[in-house]
């Protein structure tokens, strides 16, 4: 039996009973002969409560102090979990991200891991202990300040530790039984996937699937770490995410479609009246990049012959919307556009599957399903294994259900269960 990294989300350790239940599962893994490293998130809604508290004290808290505050949530979880494990007769040691050797860059609130030096974790394991690590956090290589990794940070911590420790698997425990063909809160007949390729999971995660975050899957694919997504509320087998199918050649033909994802956390900005000449788009997106904002879909209209002007639309996280508008307004005179339009009532629906690149008709069926559901399309973006469209936010749920049914993804068995109510 080898080393296993387990990660438990906030819904799994939301209260004392949840922590005790998780402790028992961890001890069971230890009894089965595994060395166990556990990464834990803050309890329940603790992080959101700390963010609300910070906003009450300061409308724009300093990044360094904000990170110091937010990391308190995971420290509470790790200490309580270590206590619960000791009550079950096993030794456990808790470590903050910095103590565990998670080294990051210096960007507060959304730092990236640049190295993991888990010397203290290895020592704890060699001494027969279970190691409990606070997720979502690390320490800056330059300033030595505490940093946080942003959304999905605990998942990324777990995969990074699994890679550094050469673990057999990284188990991500959540409040659903695995990865489903759609969000089970929206599509009651969503079907659990037994195995999905890292490539397909990356596209689903980037398109809004919340069970795993994009950074986590990207890290796992790079270091070839198998991920097993499971529920901490049941003993059912979950979903394996890996570069290669563990069944080998038993499943020669992959499913054409892996799933349908949706995202209502984005907004759309349209830059109106842009001169249609070289360098204009570069100037627009340089202004956005300098503001450290990530963008998603981009569409440029054909310029009007009479004016020589065009419109450029792109989507981005709602949380970054006003910052992007400010950045573009400052660059308006240099770029020479007429005006800006901002729309935060949009939603994105994505169809993902490696099989679609060799199956003609997928695109036509996708748009026909949306048409039959009366859903109007505003933007379209495609890759070899993904088709994404932007619609009105109010149409998203109906669109997801229509597409899911159209591609035969509905399950004939029991409805999918979200044990904790969040899908995380």
UniProtKB/TrEMBL annotation:
User: Membrane-spanning residues where?
Assistant: none
Q: Which residues form the signal peptide?
A: none
Task: Work out whether the entry's keyword set contains Transferase.
Answer: yes
EC number from the UniProt entry: 2.7.2.4
Question: Which InterPro entries does the UniProt record give?
Answer: AceGlu_kinase-like_sf, ACT-like_dom_sf, ACT_Aspartokinase, ACT_dom, AKii-LysC-BS, Asp/Glu/Uridylate_kinase, Asp_kin_monofn, Asp_kinase
The family database entries (CDD domains) matched by this protein are listed as: AAK_AKii-LysC-BS, ACT_AK-LysC-DapG-like_2, ACT_AKii-LysC-BS-like_1
The similarity annotation says: Belongs to the aspartokinase family.
* Role, per record: Catalyzes the phosphorylation of the beta-carboxyl group of aspartic acid with ATP to yield 4-phospho-L-aspartate, which is involved in the branched biosynthetic pathway leading to the biosynthesis of amino acids lysine, threonine, isoleucine and methionine.
Protein name per Swiss-Prot or TrEMBL: Aspartokinase
